[in-house]
Every structure is written in C-alpha cells, then in structure tokens.
Design brief:
Structural class: alpha+beta
Order of helices and strands: HEHHEEHEEEHHHHHE
Strand order of the largest sheet: 6-5-4-1-3-2-7
Radius of gyration: 17 Å
Shape: globular
Number of helices: 9
Helix content: 25-40%
Largest sheet: 7 strands, antiparallel
Number of strands: 7
Length: 220
C-alpha cells in the first residue's frame, strides 16, 4: 500500500509508533500549497537550525522531559513534498496546525495558501477534516461529513464514500446502524479522498522506517 495515502487511514487505530524508528499508527496529516515548505514548518514552530540539518526521523533525538522542566513539550513531525504540496505527518494524537491555526498568528491560513488537515484528535474526539481553501477562511467537518463549502474536496469525499447519511436525511436509527456497519472503513475513505484531491502519494515503508526528514515542534 505504498501508493496514495489510504494506508494512513488503514492504520488509524494501530497502536503507538513509539517502538518504531518512524511512524505508522494514528497519524495526523497536514498538507499545504502556495507556501514554501520550510516556511510552513517554521510557522508550525520548527527550529531553523534543526530544519536546515534535514535529520531523518529515525535519527531525530526527542529530549526526555524532567520534572519541573518549564520548556515546552515537543513532538516529532515528519515531512516531505509531493507535487505542489508540502505534507507534515504527526503521530502524537493530533495535528499541530489544527490545534493552533485559530490562535497562533503564524499558523493562520493566508490568502492564496491552501491547507488540508486530517487530525485524529485521539485525546479530544471527534476526528476532523479542516480545509482552508486559500481565501483566509477555514472550513471543518467531522469524519463522515463534508465541509459544506461545495468544494472539489467535498466532491472527493463523496466520491470516496467518506460522507455518511445524516439524521436529517434518513433518521437517527438508520444513521446509527450505518455507522455501526460502515464506520470501520471511514478513516480509509477519508484519507483516500484527501489523497485523491491533493494527488498525494506517501510511501508507507519510508514513513515506517523513519527515512523522511523530521523536526521537533512544540505543543501549542
């Protein structure tokens, strides 16, 4: 499953990647175009020197926190480019951009800068898709919904089967039954849709092995 990014969804409930040199389970994805890759990572909080070193994830040292340490907690973020997009992979439970774009000025979506984020929100469900189409706004939807903006991303979500019937359409009982039957495939459908919309292909073996460059990003 090295083509596309459906494999990320397939491993959305896989256990922690802590024992791996790279990442596999519970990955959140943020991708952006219309912005330089390094500039986007710096906006997320990456250190300039660390970014310049292009250290691979398997060689990145995450400092252990000491009791009473006032320095910010950091999480590793693996990154790369595909076509016009820079992508960032994080496996700490959420996507940094999703947690900060409303209140951290550097993360606010700028005009002509498109951002698509799939955040797993393992600590604060539900899982969400956030789309900043490049007009300074950001639209979001829970897994199983579209963003309501009528965009090409929404069309891709529908085409991949990532939009489930709503209570308004079929009633609560039918929605519950549908989620029970089809819910397990939803993360794969969402990542398939985002991959198709962005034209993203990220190699699973390279990510799992930690062969892509990585930086430490402070939690916001």
């Amino acid at each position: 499953m090295s083509d596309g990014i459906a494999w990320i969804g397939a491993h959305s409930t896989t256990g922690s990647s802590a024992a791996l040199p790279g990442m596999l389970g519970g990955i959140s994805l943020t991708c952006a175009r219309g912005v330089d890759a390094d500039e986007f990572l710096i906006a997320l909080g990456a250190d300039l020197d660390e970014l310049a070193s292009r250290t691979t994830c398997k060689d990145l040292v995450v400092p252990a926190r000491r009791r009473g340490d006032q320095s910010p907690h950091v999480n590793r973020a693996m990154y790369g480019t595909c076509g016009d997009w820079v992508y960032v992979l994080e496996d700490w439970g959420m996507a940094t951009w999703a947690t900060g774009y409303r209140r951290v000025e550097s993360m606010r979506p700028a005009p002509n800068e498109e951002i698509v984020c799939v955040t797993m929100n393992s600590c604060s469900p539900p899982q969400r898709i956030i789309h900043a189409p490049g007009d300074g706004r950001a639209w979001q939807a829970e897994f199983g919904e579209d963003t309501g903006e009528g965009s090409a991303l929404d069309a891709a979500l529908h085409a991949a089967g990532a939009v489930f019937p709503s209570i308004r359409e079929v009633g609560e009982a039918s929605v519950v039954a549908y989620h029970e039957e089809h819910g397990p495939r939803l993360p794969v459908a969402v990542f398939t849709a985002v991959g198709n919309y962005c034209g993203l292909s990220i190699d699973q073996e390279a990510v799992q092995a930690g062969d892509l460059p990585a930086v430490l990003i402070p939690m916001v």
